Structure formats: structure tokens, C-alpha cells
Amino acid sequence: MGKQTSKKGISIGKVFIYSFLSIASLLSLFPFYWMFIMATRPSSSYSAIPPVITPGKLLVDNFKKVLDAIDFWGAMWNSFVLCSIVTIVVLMISSLAGFAFAKFKFPGKNALFVAILLTMVIPPQLGLIPQYFLIAKSGFLDTLPGVMILFFLNPLGIFLMRQYVSESVPDELIEAAKLDGCSNFKIYRSIVLPIILPAFATLGIIVFTAVWGEFLWQFTILRDPENYTIQVALASLSNTYNVDFGMILSGVFWATVPLIIIFLFFNRLFISSITEGSVK
């Protein structure tokens, strides 16, 4: 009887957990579903009572309005170039810094690491004006490099890489490589990089999506419509007197598709990183 009760109790617990996770997943996905619904309907449906929850037939028509109003594909390309370069640079800087902080000893290491982490608590809005003047003085105003440079140093990325390298790369392996005559960079390239690929995927997804969705800095720096990223271009669709929500949300919907593709492409490595972290 005790065993049956135990099994029954476990099954009830699992049902409760799965039910909770299912409801939480549906709630988190609902904004995306609602965005899709509004992208398929006229602007009047945005404020309809009761709310509309079924798709319409205007997805293509609304998207045509977006293409007529802005250079959508050009803005998408600018965002893709921006996010790709930033992601690659952040991965390289963060992994090298994480490797150094995890496996090397040098004066002021802990103080420097703490200083880098403290930059995470500073609101980005506080540095907006001085950063703007620095970019303007450097001649990078209204350029993609001017937008990129602010994202290259990523404290979260350095922290994640340091933790992953500390737990995943044995000190004995590095010492053996040094005895074989490997330089520090060769150890990083041949030993560390293959081991931290799951962390690369995780950090890459985080950085790519964060930069793709960032708006304030891009809106501050970019002025020429030819240099607009997709976020700035979509913001230009808004009109104070006449806002076509169907058109705007259609553009937002199609601008979200690349993020979904990126996540699905790196999904296996992303899950692998989470699983390895939980096992460790």
C-alpha cells in the first residue's frame, strides 16, 4: 500500500509540474500569437471588444504596406550584419577573457573581474550622452560601426565563459598541453574552444537576440534611412495621428522570424549547454 501511495504521489506531482509548465509556456507564447493575429487583420481590430483571437486574411496585404513604406529588406540586412559582427566579436573577446580569468593568475585579477561585473548594474541610459559624444568625435556617427562598438565588451559573456571554462576545462589538461610545448593561444584554440562550443551557442543566441531587439542606442546613432536597422525602420512607421497597427505588427512579425530560425539552428547546442551545467 505504501509503494502504491508513493507511486501515486509521484504521478500526481508530475502531473502538477507538467500542467504548470504547459500553462506557463502558453502564457509566454501568447504575445507572439497575438502579434501574429494583429498582423493578419486591419488596424481597427487592435482595439476591438471583445478582443480578436483568430487570424485574418491581411498578412500579405499588411506586409506589402510595410515594403512600400520602408526599405524593409535593407534594414533587415543591416540588422543581420550588425548582430553577426557583434556576436562574433563578443564570443571571441568573452571566451579569451573568460579563459584568462579562469585559468591564469595575474595581479589584480579578482579586482578587474569584479569591476567588469559592476558595469552590469549601471543603467545604459546613464552613459547615453557621453557615449554619443565619443562616437560623434570619432567620426562614427550615423554608421553601423558606431552602433557596434558599444556592444563589443559584454560583462555577462565574460562571466558566463569564465564559469564554463572553470568547470569544463580541467587544469591537468592545460598543464599537459604546456608540457608538450603548446602556447597559451594554441591551448585556447585547440583545447578550450572545442570544449566550450555549447557555451558559445548559448552566449551567441543571447547576444544576437539582445542586439537585434535593442532600440535606444540604434535610434540615437542612426539618422540616414539607408543605415537603419530593422528596429529603427519599424519605429519610423509610427505616425502620431494615424497608426496602422496591422502594418506595424506585420513588420514586427516578419522581423521576428530570423530570431526563431537562429534559435532553432543552435537549439541542440543551447540545450546541451544547459544540460551540462545542471549535471555539473
3D architecture notes:
The protein has 280 residues and is mostly helical. It has a domain at 70-236: Orthogonal Bundle (MetI-like fold), CATH 1.10.3720. The chain has 14 helices and no strands. It has helices at residues 2-39, 59-69, 72-103, 109-118, 128-138, 144-148, 155-168, 171-179, 184-195, 197-213, 216-221, 230-235, 245-265, 267-279. Helix 3 crosses helix 7 (155-168) and helix 7 packs antiparallel against helix 10. The longest helix is centred in the first third of the chain and has 38 residues, at 2-39. The chain is globular. The relative contact order is 0.14.
SSE diagram, text form:
Layout: H1 2-39, H2 59-69, H3 72-103, H4 109-118, H5 128-138, H6 144-148, H7 155-168, H8 171-179, H9 184-195, H10 197-213, H11 216-221, H12 230-235, H13 245-265, H14 267-279
